[in-house]
Every structure is written in C-alpha cells, then in structure tokens.
Write a structure and sequence with these properties.
The protein has about 120 residues and is an all-beta fold. About 0% of the residues lie in helices and about 50% in strands.
C-alpha cells in the first residue's frame, strides 16, 4: 500500500552525526504517523523515535536528547537527525508509517515498512 524508502545511512565515528531520510510518495502525507526503528542481527526491531499525525513525538530512552524526528511536508519526507552517535547505535534503521497513527514505538502498530538503511558507528 505504502512503501517508505530510507536513505542517509553510512559509517561514522563515535560522536559524529547522521541524518536519515524516509520518503513516501503519497498524496495524504500529513495524515500519517511515523516511526523509526532499528534492528541488529538476531534481534527484533527496536523503536527509536516516533511522530504521530497530530505532531506528538516519542523517543526511546537511548535516543532521547541525541536524536530528533522531524517531517518536511513539502518534500513528503521524514527525517531522523542523530547526534553524538555511539557504537551501540549501530544497526539497520527502518522507517515505518501508518495512516492516522499516533506516536508509537511498537512494531506491531505499523504496517508499512521501508527496506532499511545501515548505520555503523565505530569507536
């Protein structure tokens, strides 16, 4: 139904920054809630940051104060700005969307997922 496309991942040193992008080609972009999740091999997806269609946001404790989720309605693009990156932030990062969704870090709440973008943080 909806296919988010993530980009912006890469390799950085600890303390560095990255900005991930998630593009979705939908006409009713403002009606969607969004989430950023990450996953390491052998484990499930972990909610990192979320933004509801109403503008409400939720951050995981591990991301609070370092990550910022934002949205550019004109570009139909969701962003995750990551600062002060740590090696434990290394993961595949996924963007997820759900129409009329309130902010949620629960994987089960989302039905539309991107293919992921890899973030690697070296010490």
């Amino acid at each position: 139904q909806v296919q988010p496309v993530e980009s912006g991942g890469g390799s950085v040193q600890a303390g560095g920054s990255l900005r991930l992008s998630c593009a979705v080609a939908v006409s009713d972009y403002r009606s969607y809630g969004w989430g950023w999740f990450r996953q390491v091999p052998g484990k499930g997806r972990e909610g990192v940051a979320a933004r509801g269609y109403d503008g409400g946001t939720i951050y995981a404790d591990s991301a609070k104060g370092r990550f910022t989720i934002s949205k550019d309605n004109a570009k139909s693009t969701l962003y995750l700005e990551m600062n002060s990156l740590k090696p434990e932030d290394t993961a595949m990062y996924y963007c997820a969307a759900r129409r009329w969704g309130l902010a949620s870090l629960l994987e089960i709440d989302f039905s539309n997922w991107g293919q992921g973008t890899q973030v690697t943080v070296s010490s």
